[in-house]
Fold these 3 entries.
Entry 1:
Amino acid sequence: MGPVIGKQDEFEALYTDKFRTLVREFGEFVQYERDRAALDIGLHLTTPTGTQRRVSHTRIWFQLKGLHKETLPAGDYQRARDIGVPVRLDHLKFWFASPEPIYLALYVEAADTFLVEDVRELVYRQWGEDFLAPETFGGGQREVTVRIRTDAVVTPERVALMRRHQSMRIDGPFFRGRPLGHRLDPLRCSLKRLEPGVYVSLVQHLLAVHDYRATETLRPAALFPGSEVVDEHALLTTGRLYHTFEWVPQLFTEFGTGPTDDFRVEGTPQFAHGPTAVFIHGDPRSRPGAESLHAFAQSILKKGIRQALVFANTDDYDYFGAFFGGFRGTGVECMPQLLGDLAYSLLTATVVYLKFREAVTWEWTTYL
């Protein structure tokens, strides 16, 4: 007699085909030749570009489970806020530690629908950081129940949001123990001048990841006597930085080493946090006036702002000196950031670097 294909086999084949149909338009399938990694389906994500799709750098994985309508009737499903799914503990730990996103997908036959959640979100919601602690589970425990929310229904919109995942290699050299996803030395690289609109967008992204919240937009011409800077891609705001913005002035950073000593001096880190004025200059042609800067400093001091961040798409230290000297003695701290200084901020903010790495070029590079 030949092998028997049972009801459970048919059920698994049914919901696997259904799931593949649901996600087919979002990527190319990846599958193991042998089922030894406890993963059913991989999806190498693609991005739509008009009538075509472009392959991304991101892969996600799915482990599929199914519940017969006899096990979970429609009425019970509709009343439930979440559904318990038993999984092997060693599999769950393997998925949780994966460098690529893994989703648990549950097919509910009674509703003919899939629920899907990121395994890390499931684990954090139920156990938090204690999940991997030795005392969390008994020595002989082999299975746990994870709870998938019933509102986590698979829709095209939900799958499309999975494109937010990014994969990066972390096996290169570290910067102060941090894997940056590249080999560039943040202290000793300098950007070439960017297209002004790209420069402004890059700085805005850097500010966004530091949770800068602008509360007022001002006229940049207030800093430049006799010039409206209309076409210089200038943006002046005040607001609050909720996370500390750090950079290292390249002017004070040592690049080379001596013949008998490989120690190199690093510039003193600068910080901004809290109430802040921000000026972004994408096409710097104007120079600020000392009187204008003094007047501006007095106006923001009245609002409790004692620091100004200046970003300029240039490596001209005369520009640096105009701002640095103009704010000196006003009670407002300002260490302008030129293209070399901005490299530090970009190269240590990996998510921003990954977004803009194809839009930037380098005046010079030094590798870790």
Note: Residues 190-364 form one domain.
Entry 2:
Amino acid sequence: MRDDKIYSKPLSYYAWQRLKKNKLALAGLITICLSVLVALLGFLITPDSTPHANDQLLELSIKPPGFKVQILKMRKNENVEHVNFFEKMWYGEVSDYKCIPIYKYRFQDEFIIYEEYTGSDPNNGSEIKLNIADVLYQVNTSDPVISSDGKYVEFYEINTSEKVKKPIAKIREEVEKNNIYTRKYWLGTDKLGRDMLSRLIIGTRISLAVGFISVVISILIGIFLGAISGYYRGAVDDIIMWFINVIWSIPTLLLVIAITLILGKGFWQVFVAVGLTMWVEVARVIRGQILSIREKEYIEAGRALGFTNLRLIMKHVVPNVMGPVIVISAANFASAILIEAGLSFLGIGAQPPTASWGAMINAHRGYIIVDAAYLAFLPGLAIMIMVLAFVLLGNGLRDALDTKSIDDDQVMGF
């Protein structure tokens, strides 16, 4: 005996099954999910975890991918505020140490003598002499570090008034173990000596955030105006459609630039500017869908039962047009990423030192014709991959949510 229930599974189940069969759409979905994970982890996984991944080492300007250099970490003689796990994840954390690229080093009594890294061949860097206590501890600079028979160093820490005495041999061991290491730049450095991999990772967060917030804004405005226009028709429809056509006639990038100039340059202003220009297509699609749905029998039944127009729109009309909205949102997400990159490239989007892919391309566009073209190519490739992922997912959702293409036997459970 068959189950008496006609619809054994919801249509979303069959839509998901169809989406899984679309290899390109599934690849786009996986790419987006991985990008979201990278964006959420943020500074927890970046090699440079300072705010905005903005640790500038000008000696390391424009180094190729895979470049390695020795780094001496010198303790800052100032108190640095430490943040909790989540604050570090979202905003990064100021380091307790100043990083100094070095070519080679040696110890002499209570001093460490290192040759500055220049990148030349031969290096020919200046030799700098530091007391090893200055490297490892927060030393009160008003009181000089003194040595005692070449075996101990004595100094005052900035947080205490007591004299500290440490054996030189032990400090040397700690410096070599914890304060001198080899740093590898997997994707090289930019023109300011910043880690390209870290900047690209944080740029993922910027692009996804702009896309998400902009799409939410466009959906809210588009559904509201489209639903009112399609449901009430008449004079209300004429006024809203006139407004939609006016906005539609203005080039998107031009409108975004105008709104950005009004609101000011900045990170949050880009969200609003892009969102306020992307609602038009949502509103037109929603209006067209609702014009046909408002005449359906279940809407007439709702009116007969005395349901309010607001209830009919929110609970019975809008939920039945969300399929096309989801497809449009995927396409708009890709458009928002491109628009944000364009604004940042023009200098009116996210402002330095924020790591934006568009700004990174703009900053290094002059290197395309020399041997460092990867500086502009890498963020451009990231934009291309992200946009392609959303386009492929949007196409897959369009096919998966097309109920006409689902076999009747599947829906009926036969």
Note: Confidence is low (pLDDT under 50) at residues 1-7.
Entry 3:
Amino acid sequence: MRNAVKDLGLTPPETSCEDPKCPFHGKVTVRGRILKGMVVRDRMQGNVVVEMEYIHWIPKFKRYQRRRGKISAHNPPCISAKSGDRVLIGETRPRSKTVSFVVLGKAA
């Protein structure tokens, strides 16, 4: 199975961690969607909420509408994204009831 972390050419963070759910230092494979977004909440222990903006076409009015969606993602201690950071997240197998994504790094 392909691992998207190697395919994207992401470099591992300088600090290491012992987290088994880390895509760089653990046994997590990233497959599926790769998304960019902004961290809006970092109060959960080990998780963050990432908000993504996208545009949706409304055929009746022949215009686009701006929409937002929120996704919970696991935040490894070696990355430790904070609120306001733009991050890259990747899809994994379900980690918990609401978490199926993991933070891959801080985006530029």
Note: The mean pLDDT is 91.
